[in-house]
Structures are given as C-alpha cells and as structure tokens.
UniProtKB/TrEMBL annotation:
It comes from the Bacteria. Keywords: DNA-binding, Transcription, Transcription regulation. Residues 145-210 form the HTH crp-type domain. The keyword ATP-binding does not apply. This is Crp/Fnr family transcriptional regulator. The keyword Acyltransferase does not apply.
Amino acid sequence: MAINTKVSQTLSHLNANLVAEIMANSVTKEISQNTEILKVGQYVKVIPIVISGLIKVFTRVEEKELLLYYIRPQESCIMSFAASLKNEPSSVFATTEEDTTALLLPVDKVENWTKQFPDINTLFFQQYNLRYSELLDTIHHILFDKMDKRLYDYLREKISLTNRNPLTISHRQIANELGTAREVISRVMKKLEHEGKVRQLKNGIELLMR
C-alpha cells in the first residue's frame, strides 16, 4: 500500500481542513530499526504519528531502563506532545523497535492547530487516556507481580506487537526494558523454560504457551 494512502487512512477521522494542513506541513519519514529519535533533555521539534512499525518509549536511570509504552500504528507520543506545548525538554527516550514509517508534525504548527481545530485535541487526549492506563499497568506490574509473570506478559505483548515468534532478543535487552538485572532474567527464564512456557534458542526466545 502506498505511503500516502496509509497516511490518509491514519488521518481519516480528522477534519478535512486539518488533514490538508497536516499533509501540507508535515514530513513522512522512514526510520530504520533501533534508531534513537528522542533522548532526555532534547527539545521536541516534531511529534510523530506512526504509520507503520513500532516505537518504544522508555526512561533510564543510571544504566537501567524501564519500558513505559509502545507507539503503534495510528498512535502518537503524548509525552512529546506535552513537552512541546510547554517548550520543555523531553523526560523520556524513544527508539524505533523495528523499521518504522512516521508522519512528523512540526511543533510550531501543532500549537496553532490546537487552537484552530478541536479534532487534534481529541486525538491527543485519546492518546493521553491510553498512555495513562498503560503507565498504571506498568506500575501495577512492578509493585504487585512476581518477575516470572512480568517476564511472561512482556514476551506475550512483544510477540503480539511484532507478530514474531521466536523473538530475536537477548536477556540483557529484556533486563533493560524491565528495569532489572540480566542475571535475574536468566534465572527466571530458566524457570519459565522448566514450566514449558518458553524455549530458549541460540539467538532468541520462543513462547510456547500463549
């Protein structure tokens, strides 16, 4: 499917005049997997809407990371939106989880569009509600779930998002995204394997029970 068609489908629920403004002033960009597109302290110049692919948003403390949420097709980054409107530096990192096509909305135009077109406010408030729920889920998992459940749920979500099983991923990568140590992941992974839930391969992990 042509990129312009995908962009039009992504924006189809918005006011036609707003769509025309977005199409005239925004850029569609193809971004390779594992590309850092935003880091802490950076001022936001563009706000992405994902057309295809996947972006992960995370925080980092010292050498540990914690995955906050994914930006899927037809979604955007509410934290980038909030930082841009307040003209504040970003408090999160964002990288492409896989090859991604994104529509990049210029911040200076978005500020004007929020005043002219109520539709765009609806778009980002929907994103806010979605991200708020996801962040609450993340906090709940950290506070109340044992690591074996956190790890298993993490693998299920990543397979669902990427449509790939087995996953090509290391224990260190998983540890970074779950905010723990590699040794902890290795120990818990052995437990899940013993329970028949996963199979550890040379270059990845296969989920056996879904």
